[in-house]
Design a protein that fits this description.
With 415 residues, the chain is an alpha/beta fold. The protein is built from 16 helices and eight strands. Helix 6 links the parallel strand 3 and strand 4.
Length: 415
């Protein structure tokens, strides 16, 4: 047996590792992750935009054969009718889960007076939407990057947006800020300091302002020293980095992929997202895929082809363990929800059977370990939160309440 002194020496030796695991890898922090992020240029945003996107999505489906036809073409036959009803109801009630008012590529570079006016107008519309209950679960803005030509404009835009919202109302409960084209951890550190100064000057509570790092440049994926700066970005953010978002087209173009081959499923995209996934694992930082620029427009054949592509890409991301992506067009909403709900419902029975067997220690064909039980319960939690399944279904199959299920997914143990 080791002596108490030997054990104390081990504690001293491993204290830095213990601290690292506790601070850097705390696990899921319990935040609900939206299934998508919708980006709209700042000058096109108004308080009714979310409702308008839902209406446009429904009209497009109606113009092209209806929900049953669309679900019948894309979904598993035994689930298609139920998925059609569920997706249609979702888009009527809550079409957009996460909205980003874009002041970057989707908006462009304009003179200062024009951008100032658009930022102020957008901020006032955010307040108006909040007053009328028309904001999605999370909302925010994408500013310009911190490269030298745009740095001051980016910071001015963020400050002006926050100031205007606070002058007319309150910040949204979940405020999301996206920092694009990050190339180094130093840029993340700089933006963290900007957030700290803004909080102090505006009287906001500490860490009110968190932000997403958009991965669009090669240097942030693989640095000149051979390291992966993405990991340093999380350190530089000191707890303010809420997510890593993949930028499909900027990243693909920056490494020389031809325009016709740029896609979420290009091997270069998979490499970058694989590294992003490793960096955020266990940290509580969310991971989001990017977008497809193929939108459902044109004749019926073109619309259906775009829907089929988007549906397949959403399911592919989900199977990779990437539970969020970008949507750039109202026509993406039907396939976002059909694909997401369908993926969860297809796996729901098997996941709950294995979870119930694990809780009962019943064994079976697959002998699951605690880590797998956490993954199974995490799957069910995500299915429940996004609306793919209902709490009554979960209770019927597992006997667990949503709180119990959430605790099991986060800690591996029931409360």
């Amino acid at each position: 047996m080791l002596s108490p002194a030997d054990l104390d020496a081990l504690d001293v030796l491993l204290e830095p590792t213990d601290r690292l695991l506790a601070e850097r890898y705390p696990g899921d922090d319990g935040r609900r992750q939206p299934v998508h992020t919708v980006y709209v240029p700042a000058d096109r945003f108004d308080a009714g935009l979310v409702r308008d996107w839902g209406d446009r999505a429904h009209r497009l489906v109606d113009e092209h054969g209806g929900w049953d036809r669309l679900a019948g073409e894309l979904c598993r036959p035994d689930l298609a009718a139920g998925l059609a009803r569920r997706a249609a109801a979702k888009i009527r009630a809550d079409p957009v889960e996460d909205l980003r008012i874009d002041l970057e590529d989707g908006y462009g570079v304009r003179d200062d007076a024009t951008e100032d006016a658009d930022v102020v107008a957008a901020a006032r519309e955010v307040v108006r939407a909040a007053e009328h209950g028309m904001l999605p679960g999370s909302v925010g803005l994408r500013v310009k990057c911190l490269e030298a030509p745009l740095r001051r404009r980016s910071i001015r835009t963020l400050g002006l947006f926050l100031t205007t919202v606070l002058e007319h109302g309150e910040l949204p409960p979940v405020l999301a800020i996206t920092l694009p084209k990050v190339s180094t951890a130093a840029q993340v550190e700089a933006f963290r300091r900007v957030c700290e100064r803004l909080e102090a000057s505006l009287g906001l509570a500490e860490r009110t302002l968190r932000f997403e790092v958009q991965v669009e440049t090669p240097p942030v994926v693989l640095g000149a020293d051979g390291r992966v700066p993405l990991a340093d970005c999380l350190t530089a953010g000191e707890g303010r980095v809420s997510a890593l978002h993949y930028g499909t087209y900027d990243y693909s173009a920056s490494i020389g992929v031809a325009a016709g081959d740029q896609s979420l499923e290009h091997p270069a995209a998979d490499l970058a997202k694989g590294l992003m996934q490793l960096v955020v694992a266990g940290t509580g930082v969310h991971l989001s895929d990017g977008s497809t620029n193929v939108v459902p427009a044109g004749d019926d054949a073109q619309v259906r082809e775009a829907w089929a592509l988007h549906h397949r890409l959403v399911r592919r991301s989900l199977s990779w363990g990437v539970y969020q992506g970008w949507d750039l067009h109202p026509g993406h909403l039907p396939t976002r929800y059909l694909a997401t709900f369908g993926w969860y419902r297809e796996g729901f029975d098997a996941a709950t059977d294995r979870l119930s067997a694990y809780l009962a220690r019943a064994g079976g064909a697959v002998m699951d370990e605690p880590a797998t039980a956490k993954a199974l319960s995490g799957f069910v939690v995500r299915a429940l939160r996004c609306g793919a399944v209902d709490a009554a279904e979960v209770d019927a199959r597992t006997g667990l309440t949503p709180d119990q299920l959430d605790a099991l997914a986060r800690t591996g143990a029931l409360p």
